[in-house]
């Protein structure tokens, strides 16, 4: 009997041939059984710092040779679920500041829509994706400091926030992420808020921009979600509740960010090894 995943993940072209090699009749390939477990781990860690996890999902899915359209769409849907759970936990813990959110949000929503609407060549998409992942990995590993919350705060200029929101929104929509992975470190770097406040703001930012990017993808014909993507949702939901609760109330966040950086380092290294060796 043919595997259920085999007929629904890829429909035509080279990907079908590759997938049929991975999934023989009568059995399900073990690598694909590991995907929900990996998503669970990623969602747990990301939710603990207020993120939706799209960069992690994209890094892992890229190792399975999935089509970019499927990768970006699945990552955005998971982002919606995980970031909403993260926000509820950070909000209930009293870390949310609306005045720190709205300047970024005003311009990021239309920019994310435009980014999701654009059609990108696969090579351009992966160049953008791994450029983003490399930036995030560097930030997670080398620029996470325990003393970030102790520095004096600075007021956020609305004009600066709007400019930042537009750039982050456009890039996020093109790649298929929510953008909080850029916003949260920037808030800490510029001392606009504490790590908990940055996580709370990032979770809302991610949710709304993911929704905007998804709408742009649907209208632009760039949306693809199938049974594989749907099977990952329960893992993301369960992990988000645990990670967000601990992140909002228990964890400092520095160790978690460095662990995430190591996960991304492994994924990036494997990708470039496959490309050049």
Q: What does the largest sheet look like?
A: none
Q: Name the overall outline.
A: globular
Give the count of structural domains: 1
- Strand segment count: 0
Q: In which range does the helix fraction lie? A: over 70%
Count, helices: 12
Question: Can you tag this structure with a few keywords?
Answer:
mainly alpha, 277 residues, globular, single chain
Describe the structure.
This protein is an all-alpha fold and 277 residues long. The chain has one domain (34-276). Helix content is 74%, strand content 0%. The chain has twelve helices and no strands. The protein is globular and about 45 Å long. The two termini are 36 Å apart. The model is unreliable at 1-30 (pLDDT under 50).
Concise overview:
With about 280 residues, this protein is an all-alpha fold. It has helices at about 5-10, 15-20, 30-50, 55-60, 70-90, 100-115, 120-140, 160-175, 180-190, 195-220, 225-250, 255-275. The chain is globular, with a radius of gyration of 18 Å.
């Amino acid at each position: 009997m043919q595997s259920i995943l085999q007929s629904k993940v890829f429909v035509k072209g080279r990907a079908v041939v590759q997938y049929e090699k991975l999934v023989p009749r009568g059995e399900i390939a073990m690598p694909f059984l590991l995907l929900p477990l990996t998503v669970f781990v990623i969602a747990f860690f990301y939710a603990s710092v207020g993120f939706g996890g799209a960069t992690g999902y994209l890094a892992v899915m890229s190792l399975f040779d999935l089509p970019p359209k499927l990768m970006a769409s699945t990552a955005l849907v998971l982002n919606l679920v995980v970031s909403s759970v993260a926000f509820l936990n950070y909000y209930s813990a009293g870390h949310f500041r609306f005045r720190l959110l709205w300047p970024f949000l005003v311009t990021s929503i239309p920019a994310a829509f435009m980014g999701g609407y654009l059609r990108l060549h696969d090579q351009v998409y992966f160049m953008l994706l791994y450029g983003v992942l490399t930036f995030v990995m560097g930030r997670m590993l080398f620029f996470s400091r325990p003393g970030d919350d102790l520095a004096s705060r600075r007021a956020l200029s609305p004009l600066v926030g709007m400019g930042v929101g537009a750039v982050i929104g456009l890039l996020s929509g093109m790649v298929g992420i929510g953008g909080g992975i850029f916003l949260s470190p920037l808030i800490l770097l510029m001392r606009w808020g504490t790590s908990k406040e940055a996580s709370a703001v990032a979770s809302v930012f991610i949710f709304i921009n993911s929704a905007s990017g998804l709408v742009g993808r649907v209208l632009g014909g760039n949306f693809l979600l199938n049974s594989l993507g749907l099977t990952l949702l329960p893992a993301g939901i369960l992990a988000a509740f645990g990670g967000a609760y601990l992140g909002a109330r228990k964890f400092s966040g520095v160790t978690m960010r460095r662990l995430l950086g190591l996960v991304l380092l492994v994924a990036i290294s494997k990708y470039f090894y496959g490309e050049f060796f």
